[in-house]
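This follows on from our talk about sequence and fold. Go ahead and set the record down below:
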Amino acid sequence: MPELSRSQLLVYGAIAVAVLMIGARWIRSGGGGSAGGTEVSFAADSSHGADSTGDAVVHVAGDVQRPGVYRLPAGSRVIDAVKRAGGFAGDANRDAINLAARLSDGQQVVVSGPGTVAASSSTGGQAGPISLGSATPEQLDGIEGIGPVTAQKIIEFRDQHGGLSSVNQLDEVDGIGPSTMQTLRAALQP
């Protein structure tokens, strides 16, 4: 076999590096699946922000096959995030989440387990912060200071704005004052 020149070695080395980088990017983007079940992909730029690509990075948690952080195209819905996470786990409460809600960057989608109901419990309190991106009118109505009319206004505001990335955005909803905002910050998560 003839001996390779220095320039030929450099060309072959550059090709090998390019192939490795393309393969790594393909694996991270979901083309090759993920052995651990969690999939996180990053943009090629150094900011790693979803705004640079228009995508939404969401955290899917709870009773799904592969909980984790996923990048989804702009305009995706909660159902798309659940599907990306492998679908519902066998005992997931499918009626406790709004599958049609639009996703927003940084949102957490929580799929509840068996025995968990969408409406507030009989004691009137929530077990913990509920997801603003998937909260039902019944869940919002169960928060102190929120009635059915204000709960519906929050849902409409969320739908009109394609989701909410912060509880602080609710300050723009008619009927929510400073004291109610304090309660909402404690009871909701983005």
Observations:
- The CA atoms of residues 41 and 154 lie 32 Å apart.
- DSSP finds five helices and five strands in the chain.
- Helices lie at 6-28, 78-84, 137-141, 148-160, 178-187.
